[in-house]
Amino acid sequence: MSDKIAYSRNGDIAVLTIQNPPVNALSHAVRQGLMDRMDQAEADSGVRAVMIVGEGRAFIAGADITEFGKPQMAPALPDVINRIEASPLIVVASMHGVSLGGGLEVVLGCHYRIAVPSARIGLPEVNLGLIPGAGGTQRLSRVAGVDAALDIMTTGRQISAAEAAKIGVIDVVQDGDPLENGLAYVTDLLAKDAPRRPVSEIAAPEAIDWDAAYDAVLARGRGQISPAQCVRAVQAGVEMPFSEGLAAERQIFTDLLKSDQSKGMIHSFFSERAVGRLPELKGVKPRPLDHIGVIGGGTMGAGIATSALLSGLQVTLIEMTPAACEAAHERIEGNLAGALRRGKITAEQHETILNETLTVTNDYADLSDADLVIEAVFEDMAVKKKVFIKLDRVCKQGAILASNTSYLDVDEIAAVTSRPQDVIGLHFFSPAHVMKLLEVVVAEKTAIDVVATGFELGKRMKKISVRAGVCDGFIGNRILATYRDAADQMVMEGASPYDIDAALEGFGFAMGPFAVADLAGLDIGWAVRKRKRVEAGIEGVSTYADKMCEAGNFGQKTGTGYYDYAAGAKARVPNPEVMSLIVADRTAVGTVQRTFTTEQIIRRYMASMVNEAAKVVGEGIARRPLDVDMTLLFGYGFPRYWGGPLKWADIVGLPDLLEDIATYAKNDSNFWEVAPLLKELVATSKSFDSLNKES
Ligand code: CAA
Fold it and tell me: What's the mean per-residue pLDDT of the chain?
């Protein structure tokens, strides 16, 4: 008999304790154990009620996601839950921690429900590209009504015990020990001779306008299909008898389980957790991390400082002049005011941060006590070197000196200090207090405990930290430069920026590359192009993108760029001046013009991304394909439901991609030089994901 469910007696109550750390996922052994223990309770003379409780940090965090994709072993979860609900005994759930997905479905199969105030419930299946598949859509809508149920399952959000009580999911919220509370509650129910109360016997709720609800949820989902499918499952439960609704729900669930989107999202779930787990960091103790220095109080420096302050760290920010100090202080204050408004900090914490934990100064000597200093000054090697020479002079021994450079050589920066082992790249993404990605750039001489400290900082800041090696642009910006080039080439060959943005937004990107460029500011690229031309001794050349800037079209900040933003950022329309500039360039360069379908745009853009990503992995800049996937997901708006570019590549098939690249290479063999790793994977019939599993 399963040892995942402990059985004990407390008078006339049978207590079933789920013991499947870390989060009591409903593995096969747990499902079988629940069946067996229900049988045992019913056969145990004198037992009048069953109480289910979880050991450890959660009641039940849902189905065991590691079993998805493997052959399903009986008993299936819906059968377990139906069996619990059909018991002649009264069955009570006593909840703490989370009850998610299948966990909440078990709860809804019980006749009564009690929880501690800190308990949280939710149906997060949509985050895995699924719908609840064990009665959740049917039972929650009967208990809480269609609107509340659809809100919970289509957003996947967790709700508090208090909110769950309000909508009828929890009967009693009570502080204390879940076991003791539960026993007292069941004793009380038995004393009152409380009846069994199966949710499946509650009348179906009122119908709503299902098609309108489906369309609204689909539109919100940015291409994700599973949230809208929740509507269809609930509809089935309202229109059909309970058992048929349950079957319809299960059919949708199993269809979605085979879908590409759920494969992508399940990959995202595990990769998000695996990305910070590096074998070489096992057992390595990070250095102390209490006091952080930040050099530079522009948007990036102020964002980094804000993020550090919000994680409870003491921050000293250095600017050059009193006026610049004041401006930096104001920026941080603005960021903190936003955090206060959104309830991320209390008014008291806000006061303490501003009055005690933040110092803005122009004196480098104030960094003498800092544990880690992050330089966020102008992206210029000479300027950065000057800063590091100063830091080397003032910082204490053992302090970590980090650069927030987005593409410069961290080895070269480290070499100007007397302590290259203490130097690392910490590449934040703007706005740094909002964006989740942190590239931890490990230079040749960086000490292992310095790497561990970089990851520790990311953890404290609640970021997704990815290990990257040194190269121009590291993981993210290097790949970005390539797929941006691919987009620019397509523009020269006949696709408009608007066709490209529409195709990629349809694919699931939050924004297409030209809309992103407008948001970031077109003047940045313009300055880089001008500088590179001066360095190369080529002057007097001006592309259509330069001409856009010469005419003052810098993107959103000037109201026009590729788009015209007169009616607001969301109501953007193409800027009518842009296409004529592009056409003039195409004519001047003499590129052969062709038309692109949406599919062709996506394939070519994605092929360039995958090919460069394969080079990044092959060269060891990223250790694993999943490191690239998480970089693109958390820093570049890549759609989560594709799992990242290399998961996408696995899904669409590597041999076809290789063939596409060979076709593109006929016109430009330099740009389309195939990554050796991609060739090797195709030759050995392996996937990128197989490398994740090997690592
Ligand atoms: N199945 C298998 N493993 C799971 C799991 C699950 N449902 N939930 C969490 N884990 C694992 C994690 O992978 C992690 O493992 P490692 O330590 O090896 O990385 C470990 O448990 C701890 O998880 P976290 O690091 O995420 O811990 P946390 O405290 O930050 O969060 C949590 C805990 C809120 C439960 C979070 O893990 C979570 O949201 N889990 C997923 C919940 C979920 O989606 N449930 C629905 C499953 S689908 C379903 O139930 C379908 C159905 O209807 C049949």
Answer: 95
Ligand 1 binding pocket mutation candidate from 23, 255, 693 (most atoms within 8 A of CB): 23
Domains in the chain: how many in total? 4
3-state helix, strand, coil in the chain (%, to 5): 55, 15, 35
Give the residue carrying structure tokens 């909440």: 104
Tens digits of residue pLDDT in 69-116: 888 899 999 999 999 999 999 999 999 999 999 999 999 999 999 999
Is 82 among the catalytic positions? Answer: no
pTM for the whole thing? 0.91
Reference 201, options 282, 285, 143; nearest CA is: 143
Domain final residue pick, 560, 590, 620: 590
pLDDT at 204 over 80: yes
Residue identifier of the C-alpha nearest atom 24 of ligand 1: 273
Domain-embedded: residue 267: no
With a 6 Å cutoff on the Cβ, whether 65 touches ligand 1 is yes
* Overall average pLDDT of the 38-65 stretch: 97
Which atom belonging to ligand 1 lies closest to the Cα atom of 156? 44
| Contact 124 CB / ligand 1 (< 6 Å) | yes
The 3-state DSSP class for residue 374 equals strand
Chain centroid to Cα 436, Å, comes to 8
Q: Which domain holds residue 562?
A: 511-590
What distance in angstroms lies between residue 23's CA and the mean position of ligand 1's atoms? 7
Per the domain annotation, does 127 fall within a domain?
yes
pLDDT in tens, 419-433: 999 999 999 998 999
Pick the closest to residue 608 from 647, 660, 677, 653 (CA basis): 660
422 lines ligand 1 (CB under 6 A): no
